[in-house]
Here is the input.
Amino acid sequence: MSLTVTYLLAFIGSIALAALSTLGALVNPVTGIFLQCAAPLARLLGRQVSDALGAWGPLLWVSALWPLSLPLLHGVVFQLLRWPWWSFPTAFLVTGILTATLLLFLYSAPE
Here is the structure.
């Protein structure tokens, strides 16, 4: 199977995973970890995140977006940059936390 077909199937799978993650957003531990790790960063940027953490907006967006980053990160880390195996979980955590920080920044009020 060619690399293009493989990544096309991976993107289709990530869309299905994003739908499942969004439906189970309240019980999804990955979404909670990303939001809790991103809250101090958003506070350092001068935002009041206590209201945003209780809102549905950032929770649903983070739970929908983190699965979509998996095939893209895999292609960048392993095919383009040719990094070792341990760099994929690191890149996944950094990408998820930065995405959650951006969403908390957008959904929270200035202090």
The helical segments are 3-23, 29-44, 50-53, 56-65, 69-80, 87-107.
